[in-house]
């Protein structure tokens, strides 16, 4: 069966510090991968998605970036965090080859920028 | 543009009653609809899905109804239990063959004992 992992689970960072959140998927090959941000009490905002290694599409201009160095690894980064970057970050995957598919979510990373 | 909206931000029901959570969408070209359940501090969990060639689909204690005429989607939970307390999101596929989903803002279901 497939599983998706995210770490860390919780992170408190000062404004201006760098960020690296990691997501890995097990039990599948060539998944499509997604990064979302969820503000408190709000819906999900798609940040990035990837159809393969090194292929990243950005949905929202911001000071975040994403990378996919390996088939089942998706990384969300920032060089300098802003207060507005606080939120709940979720990684999701679907089976490869874009079609109409269910997205499965990881446990999330709670980020607090102070 | 495309959108997905929920009718009520909060729904409070008595334990044992049936719950109905509603969702409306704007683009009739959508083919696929999903309901997710998100408990506090966790990632959304897939509940049930339905494709546009169906009007109804049933799972364990849950039923999804799709009315394409009025562009309305609903999730029915039978015999609501305290463990059903969560935020429920509806989602649909976006335009084109991108694999992206468009999410509603969520309805918080509160189950009273």
Describe this entry's structure for a reader.
The complex is a heterodimer of chains A (114) and B (113). With 114 residues, chain A is mainly beta. Chain A has a single domain (3-113), classed as Immunoglobulin-like (Sandwich). Chain A is 0% helix and 57% strand. Chain A has no helices and eleven strands. In chain B, strands 2, 4, 5, 9, 10 and 11 form a six-stranded mixed beta sheet that branches. Chain B has a five-stranded antiparallel beta sheet with strand order 1-3-8-7-6, with no helix packed on it. Chain B has 113 residues and is mainly beta. Chain B contains no helices and eleven strands. Chain B has a single domain (4-50, 69-104), classed as Immunoglobulins (Immunoglobulin-like, Sandwich). Chain B is 0% helix and 54% strand. The A-B interface holds A 6, 32, 34, 42-44, 46, 49, 51, 90, 92, 94, 98-108, 110 and B 31-32, 34, 36, 41-46, 49, 51, 89, 91, 93, 97-101, 103-106.
Radius of gyration of chain A: 13 Å
Question: How many domain units of chain A?
Answer: 1
For the secondary structure, the number of strands of chain A is: 11
* Oligomeric state: heterodimer
Strand fraction of chain A: over 45%
Question: Pairing-aware structural class of the strands and helices of chain B?
Answer: mainly beta
Largest sheet of chain A: 7 strands, mixed
Tally the helices of chain B: what do you get?
Answer: 0
Rough outline of chain B: globular
Q: Got a strand count of chain B?
A: 11
The gross shape of chain A turns out to be: globular
CATH superfamily of chain A: Immunoglobulins
What's the arrangement of secondary structure elements?
The complex is a heterodimer of chains A (114) and B (113).
Chain A: E1 3-7, E2 10-13, E3 19-26, E4 32-38, E5 44-52, E6 55-58, E7 64-70, E8 73-78, E9 87-94, E10 104-105, E11 109-113
Parallel strand pairs in A: 2-11
Antiparallel strand pairs in A: 1-3, 3-8, 4-5, 4-9, 5-6, 7-8, 9-10, 9-11
Chain B: E1 4-6, E2 10-14, E3 19-25, E4 32-38, E5 45-51, E6 56-58, E7 62-67, E8 72-77, E9 86-93, E10 101-103, E11 107-112
Parallel strand pairs in B: 2-11
Antiparallel strand pairs in B: 1-3, 3-8, 4-5, 4-9, 6-7, 7-8, 9-10, 9-11
């Amino acid at each position: 069966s497939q599983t998706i992992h995210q770490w860390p689970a919780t992170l408190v960072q000062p404004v201006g510090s760098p960020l690296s959140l990691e997501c890995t998927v097990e039990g599948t090959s060539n998944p499509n991968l997604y990064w979302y941000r969820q503000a408190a009490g709000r819906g999900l905002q798609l940040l990035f998605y990837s159809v393969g290694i090194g292929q990243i599409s950005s949905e929202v201009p911001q000071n975040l970036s994403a990378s996919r160095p390996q088939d089942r690894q998706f990384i969300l980064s920032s060089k300098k965090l802003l207060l507005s970057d606080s939120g709940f970050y979720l990684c999701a995957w679907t089976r490869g080859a874009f079609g109409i598919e269910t997205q499965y979510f990881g446990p999330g990373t709670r980020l607090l920028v102070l | 543009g495309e959108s997905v909206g929920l009718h009520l931000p909060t729904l409070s029901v008595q334990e044992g009653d049936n719950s109905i959570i509603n969702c409306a969408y704007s683009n009739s070209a959508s083919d696929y609809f999903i309901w997710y359940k998100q408990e506090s501090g966790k990632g959304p969990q897939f509940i049930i899905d339905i494709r546009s060639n169906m009007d109804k689909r049933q799972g364990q204690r849950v039923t999804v109804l799709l009315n394409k005429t009025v562009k309305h989607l609903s999730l029915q939970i039978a015999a609501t239990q305290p463990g059903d307390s969560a935020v429920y999101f509806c989602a649909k596929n976006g335009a084109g063959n991108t694999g992206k989903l468009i999410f509603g803002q969520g309805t918080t279901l509160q189950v009273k004992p």
